[in-house]
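Cross-posting from the chemistry board since nobody answered there.

I work mostly on the small-molecule side, so proteins are not my area. We synthesized coenzyme A and want a rough idea of how it might sit in this target. Sequence and SMILES are below. Is it possible to get a predicted 3D structure of the two together?
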Amino acid sequence: METVAYIVVMVKRGYRRIGIGTELVKTLIDLARERGFKLIHFPVFERNVAARRLYSKLGFREVGRIPKGFYRDGEFMDEILMAMELPEPGDQA
Ligand SMILES: CC(C)(COP(=O)(O)OP(=O)(O)OC[C@H]1O[C@@H](n2cnc3c(N)ncnc32)[C@H](O)[C@@H]1OP(=O)(O)O)[C@@H](O)C(=O)NCCC(=O)NCCS
């Protein structure tokens, strides 16, 4: 039985900032919980302010950082690991 779910979401340009990302992540949290996962991990690069705010708003917390974990556009940047512990199905969220 898997215990840790990894999730990544992407919303098409032109459809951002209208709540779709929030609904996608909420749905994935519910699905992971229903399927018995205990934890969700989400890796994000440091400068991805949009994703970090979205996930923080939904209760994810930064739990780790890999210096120079990503290489993009000719430079390294830190990879941040965000995580959320999931309550057991049936528990109050
Ligand atoms: C991150 C992403 C999924 C957000 O999707 P979205 O549909 O725009 O998100 P929402 O409209 O639900 O926004 C929820 C919150 O996220 C934060 N947020 C979203 N876009 C933001 C931006 N450009 N700048 C700062 N905060 C942002 C805000 O706190 C926002 O709440 P608010 O609008 O009430 O201020 C989208 O920007 C995206 O697809 N980015 C590229 C792919 C990506 O980075 N995926 C995640 C990591 S792999």
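Reply from a structural biologist on the board:
Welcome over. Reading the output above for you: The chain has one domain: 4-85. The CA atoms of residues 60 and 84 lie 5 Å apart. Happy to explain the token format if needed.
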